[in-house]
Design brief:
The chain is of the alpha/beta class. The chain has a single domain (2-214), classed as DHBP synthase (Alpha-Beta Complex), CATH 3.90.870.10. Helices cover 34% and strands 21% of the residues. It contains eight helices and eleven strands. Strands 1, 2, 3, 4, 5, 6, 7, 8, 9, 10 and 11 form an eleven-stranded mixed beta sheet that branches. It is globular.
Length: 216
Amino acid sequence: MILPLKTPADAEAAVAAVREHLGRNRLLAYPTETVYGLGSAVDRESVDRLAALKGRPEGKPFLLLVASLGMAERTGLIFTPAASALAEAFWPGPLTLVLRGGEGKLPERLRGPEGGYAVRFTSHRAVARLITLLDQPLTSTSANRPGQAPAAGAEQIVALFQDAVDRGDLLVLNGGTLGNVPPSTIVDCTSRQPALIREGALPRGELRRAVGRLAP
């Protein structure tokens, strides 16, 4: 199934179908402010299904998309002073923060090798509205096969994951064709001194200009 997701109104029209789909531990494909993502609810069974679809090994986790700082905090994630400064400067937007915490509220399958969970407050208005209406984060990973570039649109996603779409396991949310946007910048904030893991849409210099000594 393919549903439109270009505007907040589209999110409101789609939320009932999306909620029912996720409630059966099934998967989504959706646009973000960077690339198309594949995602799920955050329970263990759904995450395992996402890993199987993506071909993701056990030790490589997925990030979380949230629609507010409060949603991230409700999952038990811990914001260091640097993480708080970076979030205030760049959220919502293409900045992923790796944060400690989450014990008992998030599956360990999502915890990365740094000991934290990767989380981003998305600036895609339609996806943010959908997550707000669902009142829960979504997992996220780029919509591609290992070693390939992310799909630029819904038609490419269907072609890549045709079997999952045909089985009804993958619901595709069509946000149109996305441009050639770099992936999110990732900063490890699991310790007092932040560390840049990946320089993406936000370069290191922009981080430093915004938050000074609290930047990686």
